[in-house]
Structures are given as structure tokens and as C-alpha cells.
């Protein structure tokens, strides 16, 4: 993970996500809710009981999915009861290994099937299997006392549910940060546009915009709040418009030297105003109005000077036209920012408004639905079989070999095994590295700290840090989760630091088994689907391009291009994800992967260009020569494969662009003559240049990107 991504996620630790609270606050809440039972047990001279109750709270914490208070608390109470029952069963059958093996297999299979069985099963995940292994994995310490510990596991889970029920229900403020994220990205883009405008055309805002839309979509649902939707939806629309305008500005290239200074000042001031909107939405500090500036007046003066110089032959008219186009785009960006700021100012006063209660859980257990899902063509079913087989095999291995703490190897399987091989491989590396760091740290702590109270305080810090850093990287959680489990186990037996080394060894065994099983047992490879996903992304992007091109000459305020854009964004994002997974899979064709990855990257670059093109809708666009021909051939050129048909479309695009270029040059010549004769005011030629030239330049860039997306592309049967 790059330093840039880690830095971005570190900042987000202090920002809420939809239906939740900032990660730092969540970490503190979990530190108190999980660590309190241990501290109470120590005060009551029963540290073992406190450790067992803490285990119950710890297991329940992994089923906390946030949301409204009542359904969240209800789900945690169900989890506490199920985990305690699994712990009791594990303690009861610990000496009956075949029975324990069967129960584990059932729990793992159900958890892997998830929502195909029931929404509650998906919420519980692998935690019941974890509780079972915690009681039965060692094969010792069973009996009445161990089974009675299930009561403390239950009470620990109930305590966690009660403690987290006291935290506030989600409010509108929990949606404001996702809405602010696009504004932060656009602010960075505007700061970069004067230096490396090519970087701005990359689809950096697509993800934040999707998250902002998702954050507000619930407010338009039947159980939503229409008033809140009316005040949040415009901000998402403004962010979308600003992203498109910023891309259009970046496509124009660097500013001419004559306007470079006011251009940079205006973009910097616009970036500051966007940061103000971000601060206003995230309630970081009271928004402050910036003083009025004279940068636009300076820009106007510079543009007028350039026109006079063009009349005297001292300035190329192409630069004059580019400067004028950049000035108009900056004016639109500034106006949109001002409107967004007004809308944002209305939200802080509503930040405490409760969010609507989410819909009720999914349908009850449906055996017919479950049976239909249990086919080898289903990736979910194959993953369930794989997880069940590998976890059971590892449990048998450690039992037969009489390995100490062998349950940790099985737990490692449950933690890292995922439906996709590439994700399993990534989590294997993260868990091994995290266990090495966390295990060594735990060994040092166990050897040095022997007071239960000190251990309880250390556990509070570890839990808080671990749950805070979970969103950043899974390895960070393992670094803190390893000493957490080991320190809990040493409350009654301090100083057993060798357990840390055993845990590292069992982790290596379990993760190796998970990686091997992910590769050999009913694998769900991504690379066979890459060609299909890339083709769908191409088709969706072509449909979006065609819709925008056909809407340019006849702008319709009621025309909604958003569905086509959203479909294309999702299809391209899915293709990119598939390509990323394919890169780490065995058996893929490197040449085909490189070819399709290049194509998908080009599609990603094409989407913001198409969106920028949509900002130039005007009836005069129909007067651009060869516009109809370009429209007829652009989308087919993107979707057809190399051959006679592709060549026909490519040739038609080249011919259309040549005709447009000649038309643009003719306009420049005519406008230069007008300036020489003193006609510096509005004329038909000037209007044509203003409205047609940016469209023609974008069409050139789009055509080049289409060529890049289709280069070396092959039909699906040949790929």
C-alpha cells in the first residue's frame, strides 16, 4: 500500500462513515466496552472470570455493523447468545473430537454461505466458530467449570451490547463527511491543474462521488427523510459538476504565459473555497468567508491584452482562444462553488438530525433458496466448501500431531481464507507479518508485565488502537490482535511468553493451508472473467459516450445522463478490480492481462473526458462540420474489434476530426482578420470559436483515448 493511500486512510480515522462514527471514537468505545469486564474481574479478585467475559465481548464486537441503535443492539444480543452457545458446545464436546469436528464444519459452512442462509448468519460470520475453537481447540480444561464459563462469555457479550447501546444513534453528521470527500479531491485537483493537468483527468473523483451518492441514497428511500434529501442531494450534484468542469479545465492544458499568474491565483482561491466547504460539512471548524479578490479582473485584463497583441500579430490566436476558454471555465467553477457553499451552510445546523432507521433484516430462512444456491457454479458455495474442508483438515492435522495451541492454526484459516485467491494471498501476507510483529511484542510484554491491573490497562490501549486501525490495513489489526489474545490467556498464568512463538508457528501453518486450499480446492479464478468484464465496461462506456454525443446539439434540461454514467462507472470499476485480482492469480496469460489492463485504464481515462464533454451542450454544436459523422462512428469504434469494421469507424473518425480541425483553423483566421480591422466585440466567428473549439479539442482527445482503449484488443474467443 502506498504512502499516499496510508496517509489518506489515516486522515479518515477521524472522519465518520455512513451509519457509523469516526474510527478513533469507535476504537475508544470498543476499548471501554471490551476491556471493562477484565478490569472489573481484577477488582473483584476474579481475573479469570473477567478475562472470559472480555473474550465474550471481544467476539461480539466483530459482529457490530453499526447502524441505528435498536437493530444494532438486537443483533449484538443475538450474537452474544449464539457465541455463548457455541462456546458451551465446544467445552462439552472438547474430548469428543469427531463431534467437535462436525460442529465446526457446520458453523464454518453456514458462515461462508452467509446471506444465502439468512441475514443474521451473515452478521455472525465466523465468530461462533471462533468461540467453539476457543473452548474446544485445546482439548483440555473441559468439564463443568469450562462449560460454566459460557455464562461469562454470554454476560460479556450482553455487556458489550449494552455498552454500545449507549453510544449515539447515527445522525446526519455521519453522512456529511462522505459528501465532503469529493470536494476535498476536487480541491487537490485544482491545486494541481496549474502544474500537471494530465493527472487531473484521471478518474480520481469517481469513487468519492459514488460514496457520496450512496450516503444520501437512503434519504430518498420510503423510510428516508425527504427534507434531508432536498438539502444533501444538491451538494452531490454540485460536486459532480465541479469534477466535470475541473476535468474540462485540465484538458485545455497549461495556461498561456500571459495569464499564468491570475490563472494560478484563481485556481488556488477556488481550492481554498472548496476546502471551506469541506470544513463546513465535516464540522472541523466554523467556516470563514474569504475576502473578495481582484484576480478575475486581472484575468480579464490579461485576456484583453492578448486579443490586442493577436491583432498586432504578437500573439497566436490559438493561445487567445485557449485563455478565453479557461477564463470561462474558471468563472463557471467559481459560480458553482459559491452555490455549493450556500447549500453547505444550511447543513451544520441540521447535523444532529437522526437518520432514518434502516429496513428490517432480509427474509427468513428459505430452504428452497438455499438449495438453489448450493451448486458448484456458485462462487459462494465453492467458497463454503473450500473453507469447511481446509479448516476441518487443519483441525484434524493439529489434533493428530498433538500440536500445542493447534486451534490457532484453524483460526488463521478462518481469518484469511476469502472467495478470491488474490485477496486470500494478500491477507496471508498481512497476517504473517502482523503476527511476527505482534507476537514478538506480546512475548516482550508477557515476560515484562505480571500485574493483572497493568495487563488490563495495556489491553485497553491495544483494543483501542486495534479497532481504530482496522480500516487502514488488516495487518495493523493483526499486530494488535495477537498480543490482545495472548495477554488475555496469561491473566491467570503470567509469564508464559513462549505462547507467542507458538502462535506465530500456528499462524504460518494455518495461512499456508489457506493459501494452498484457495488455489487447489474449487478455486474461483478471476482471470477467466476479465475479458467479459472488460467487454461490459467497453459497452457501458460506449453507451454513455453515445448518449452524451447525441445530447450535445439538443440540450434537454430533462435529459438524465446520470444512469448511463453510473452504469459505466460501475462496469469500469469492476473491470479494474478483476484486473487487479487477476495479476496475482496463477495460470493467467500475462500478455492478455497487459492488453486488457491497458484497455481498461484507457476506459477509466475516457469516462471523465465524456463527462467534461457533457458540460458543453448547446444547439450550436450541431453546426460543427462532421459532428454527425463523429457521433455515428465514435461508439462503434469503441466496441468493435480490430478488422474491417473497426478500420471503417477509425477512418471515419479521422476524416471527421480532420474536417473539424480545418474548420477551427478557418475560424481562427477569420477572427484574426476581425481583430486586425478593430472588430474586437462579439461576432458570429467569436461565438463559434467559444462554443465549438472546446468541443473539437475534447473530441480529439476522446478519439485518441478510444484508439488507446481498442489497441491490440481481440474478440473474447481469442483472448
Number of helices: 28
Q: What is the structural class?
A: mainly alpha
H/E element order: HHHHHHHHHHHHHHHHHHHHHHHHHHHH
Distance between the termini: 30 Å
Strand content: under 5%
The poorly predicted ranges are 1-20, 715-719
**Can you tell me the overall shape?**
elongated
Q: What is the gyration radius calculated from CA atoms?
A: 30 Å
Write structural notes for this entry.
The structure is a single chain. The protein has 719 residues and is mainly alpha-helical. The chain contains 28 helices and no strands. Helix 9 (173-192) runs parallel beside helix 12 and helix 27 packs antiparallel against helix 28 (684-710).
Kindly list the characteristics that best describe this protein.
719 residues; mainly alpha; 28 helices; single chain; disordered C terminus
